[in-house]
């Protein structure tokens, strides 16, 4: 999916962060493709480039890209055995594109910790082991049915099964050691051969350290430990203070929010960092459309050709694609206006085979 699932042990601050995230929901009318459910938050993706383009073009409306966060409750010790909300939880987490793992790094004696004390290393282990166990079960099931696929009349199915066999065996060892599937180095064909198992630990993970107000500016010991774990896995880490984020979220205007951030000495809110990091895990890029009516950011899959990228706006644009008029937003920033971009010969016509770049500004021509 094109979304991030928020997971973490109970009482680490997931709901606090999720409520802050969804306190300024994106206007649904602009994003008809989005799901509307209580545990799903559609949020604007902060992008300085969009603001800069809007400043130059001066449109009536500015519409940011959006991304989706899903609050996935119910991850506790024993979830992989289907205890508690376990089964439901695993079903949800298999659907998401990437995972934001909230880790409690704040001390607060009034708030009970499920394991009795604040210990991010052990918390992370509990969760990662549950996820690895759930994947181990999926892999074991696949191994049990592999013979059937190996004997399939369909050559493609047989070939895929053949490629997957040694990988599945390596996966068992990895997962039994409590390590995520993504720690196994695999090439594109190998990943493709097992992709239909939807392994949870194959998805990218962002660690979200929920810290005390006092620790926002300097790194505390808990955060240092999380960073060590993340470095070994190749995962990213951000710090956030759930309490402060909910205070910021309660402020009415953008100006008030900015003043508050300045006051506490941070440049960007934790939520902004979390949204951008989450979006970046989804292997998506952004292009822009820029007209006097509307300047808008659009999300498309990395590697998409021009017609597919046009299809993000409307399926008619993909079907009737003729050509794309393209320049890069950096050219606009360097030269100052679209006419200067044209004069400098940076304004190009591109056809069906053009691979759209992150940061392109595009005007599509199409047949209806
Ligand atoms: P969840 O169970 O993971 O969804 O956790 P909640 O968001 O419900 O938070 C559990 C408790 O911790 C609540 O009482 C929150 O107010 C509190 N809490 C959340 N974030 C912070 C924080 O950054 N600092 C402090 N001191 N308390 C927090």
UniProtKB/TrEMBL annotation:
One of its GO terms (molecular function) is ATP binding. It holds the Pfam family YchF-GTPase_C. It comes from the Bacteria. One of its GO terms (cellular component) is cytoplasm. ATP binds at residues 11-16. Keywords: ATP-binding, Magnesium, Metal-binding, Nucleotide-binding. Residues 2-260 form the OBG-type G domain. Gene3D superfamilies: 3.10.20.30, P-loop containing nucleotide triphosphate hydrolases, TGS-like domain. Residues 283-366 form the TGS domain. Its cofactor is Mg(2+). InterPro entries: ATPase_YchF/OLA1 (IPR004396), Beta-grasp_dom_sf (IPR012675), G_OBG (IPR031167), GTP-bd (IPR006073), P-loop_NTPase (IPR027417), TGS (IPR004095), TGS-like (IPR012676), TGS-like_dom_sf (IPR023192). ATPase that binds to both the 70S ribosome and the 50S ribosomal subunit in a nucleotide-independent manner. NCBIfam families: redox-regulated ATPase YchF (TIGR00092). PANTHER family: OBG GTPASE FAMILY, OBG-TYPE G DOMAIN-CONTAINING PROTEIN. Belongs to the TRAFAC class OBG-HflX-like GTPase superfamily. OBG GTPase family. YchF/OLA1 subfamily. HAMAP family: YchF_OLA1_ATPase. This is Ribosome-binding ATPase YchF. It comes from Peredibacter starrii. The gene is ychF.
